[in-house]
Write a sequence for this structure.
């Protein structure tokens, strides 16, 4: 922690090397956050780079009101939300995006059927996330994908805890309803689909 | 727990329902349909949690952002700013200490009654040519800075603040160009032997500077030769920042200054933090307004409007705070304490005169004490009489008993 504090102080003094060292710990999480928010690899790269530059530019204004990590993820999330607001049109998740995330159709060590299922499952999930509204998506990604606590999500989004809970619940609900047609991909019974069919 | 409640709570499982986790699990064990729902929910959470497990950060990302910040022409200026502020405050503190030492050792001339004629001539000259608010006051300012410890050097900092309406647009610019926000305040304690005339001079001076009085209270009675008498006025004045130096110097010339203080409070951190928060809330408001247009169900509309209301309230609070600081930074607060005395003591009076003054003061004090003691005796006389009667009765009883023995 003291090492981080020292790096932070040096970075605030304008030392780019200290900033690079400091941000190494956050690099992957910022990229994956941007990837989940933006959906596409190229967009995620642009967002993540923009977030890094914004953090660098704003480092002087960081006054330890929140923890440094919260502050960093807040800037990254806001960068993604700004990007989504400008983009507006939601692209479907491409096969490239899946390939970038470790999926390989030609992996000889894997069962082709299982690989195809995994691919379909991931694709459905990513499309489901991409279909969420930006605020809900941010809350869901931070909580369920990135693993932040509700309180941390509330601090990162600078949003009341109750609103965060509401957004996460609604995002999960929407995601589940988007995915229920492919419930078999998750090896569970499609309860809601069966109920709907029974109602019909 | 029934199925309806189970379904309602399911989206927030497992983290938001700690108190009901047992009931929740119990119901799932009893109801196969809810057990399946729970399984589906857990599968979804599991899938989400493992989504990033195999993601590798492209090497190009690290290369790109590192190159971007190396080429970034704008370096963080906060630390330099802090360092500069620290040095400025330290320099101001040193100046204050030096001036205080000079004052104590008599190295700096204190305006006293002997100088009053000259000072009033100066004041009347100013009254003949009243100052306009926009008139530059460059000549007197350096003198005031020297006289008051250089604290006003901070007021020379540039202040290019935008209005609150343009905060959101200027956010990025503001991150780079953050002028320090300094709130100036001062306090002066004056002794005067011509209370009414001197208070009027302060009012005229304040009016000429374009300032105003926020608060004023006076107590006590006019000085009539009694050392303990005299009026005491407390004033809170607002003086335009560009006129503060001259105002302080001119006020010091009106009477004898027994104490003065200048404070420059740096609220840049709070100001820019608030402004950043405001920009963020404005962006949120824009997003929420956009979402409101896209809302499909009434519950969405209600929730968004509720959130919009919260955001609007927060924005108004933050704007109010910024407006307060903006008003404060342009107009310094001056606390002026005016004490009426019979005569202003001369700092360099001869020994004989000082001894005479001291003896007269002592006689006045002794006379005052005797007067007060007489009044006290009159007030306390009923109690004293009662106590004396009780003591007399007790003495009589004791003496009677001794005689019987």
């Amino acid at each position: 922690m003291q090492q981080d504090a020292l790096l932070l102080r040096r970075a605030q003094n304008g030392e780019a090397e200290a900033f690079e060292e400091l941000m190494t710990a956050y690099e992957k999480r910022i990229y994956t956050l941007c990837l989940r928010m933006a959906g596409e690899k190229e967009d995620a790269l642009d967002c993540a780079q923009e977030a890094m530059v914004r953090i660098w530019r704003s480092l002087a204004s960081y006054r330890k009101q929140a923890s440094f990590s919260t502050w960093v993820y807040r800037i990254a999330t806001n960068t993604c939300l700004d990007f989504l607001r400008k983009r507006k049109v939601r692209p479907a998740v491409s096969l490239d995006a899946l390939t970038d995330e470790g999926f390989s159709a030609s992996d000889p060590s894997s069962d082709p059927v299982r690989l195809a299922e995994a691919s379909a499952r991931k694709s459905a999930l990513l499309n489901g996330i991409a279909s969420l509204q930006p605020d809900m998506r941010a809350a869901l990604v931070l909580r369920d994908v990135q693993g932040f606590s509700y309180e941390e999500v509330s601090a990162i989004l600078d949003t009341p805890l109750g609103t965060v809970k509401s957004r996460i619940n609604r995002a999960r609900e929407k995601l589940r309803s988007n995915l229920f047609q492919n419930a078999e991909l998750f090896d569970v019974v499609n309860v809601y689909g069966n109920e709907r069919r029974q109602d019909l | 727990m029934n199925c309806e409640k189970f379904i309602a709570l399911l989206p927030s499982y497992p983290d938001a329902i700690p108190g009901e986790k047992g009931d929740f699990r119990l119901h799932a064990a009893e109801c196969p349909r809810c057990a399946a729902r729970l399984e589906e929910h857990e599968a979804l959470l599991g899938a989400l949690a493992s989504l990033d497990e195999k993601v590798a950060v492209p090497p190009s990302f690290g290369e790109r952002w590192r190159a971007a910040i190396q080429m970034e022409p704008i370096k963080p200026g906060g630390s330099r700013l802090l360092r500069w502020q620290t040095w400025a405050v330290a320099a101001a503190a040193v100046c204050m200490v030096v001036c205080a030492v000079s004052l104590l050792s008599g190295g700096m001339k204190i305006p006293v009654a002997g100088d009053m004629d000259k000072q009033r001539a100066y004041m009347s000259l100013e009254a003949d040519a009243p100052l306009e608010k926009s008139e530059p006051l460059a000549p007197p300012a350096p003198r005031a800075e020297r006289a008051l410890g250089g604290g006003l050097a901070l007021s020379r900092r540039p202040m290019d603040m935008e209005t609150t309406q343009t905060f959101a647009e200027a956010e990025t610019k503001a991150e780079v160009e953050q002028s320090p926000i300094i709130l100036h305040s001062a306090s002066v304690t004056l002794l005067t032997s011509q209370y009414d005339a001197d208070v009027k001079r302060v009012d005229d001076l304040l009016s000429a500077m374009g300032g105003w009085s926020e608060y004023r209270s006076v107590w006590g009675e006019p000085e009539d030769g009694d050392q303990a008498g005299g009026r005491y006025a407390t004033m809170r004045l607002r003086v335009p920042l560009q006129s503060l130096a001259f105002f302080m110097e001119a006020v010091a010339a009106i009477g004898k200054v027994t104490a003065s203080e200048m404070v420059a409070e740096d609220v840049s951190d709070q100001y820019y933090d608030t402004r950043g928060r405001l920009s963020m809330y404005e962006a949120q408001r824009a997003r929420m307004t956009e979402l409101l247009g896209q809302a499909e169900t009434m519950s969405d509309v209600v929730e968004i409007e509720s959130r919009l209301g919260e955001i609007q309230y927060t924005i108004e609070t933050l704007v109010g705070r910024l407006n307060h600081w903006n008003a404060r930074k342009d107009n310094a607060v001056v606390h002026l304490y005016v004490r009426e005395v019979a005569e202003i003591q001369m700092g360099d009076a001869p020994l004989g005169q000082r001894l005479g003054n001291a003896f007269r003061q002592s006689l006045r004090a002794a006379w005052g004490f005797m007067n007060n003691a007489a009044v006290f005796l009159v007030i306390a006389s009923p109690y004293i009489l009662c106590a004396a009667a009780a003591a007399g009765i007790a003495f009589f009883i004791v003496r009677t008993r001794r005689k019987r023995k």
Observations:
- Residues 103-108, 195-200 of chain A have pLDDT under 50 and may be disordered.
- Chain A touches chain B through 74 residues (CB under 8 Å).
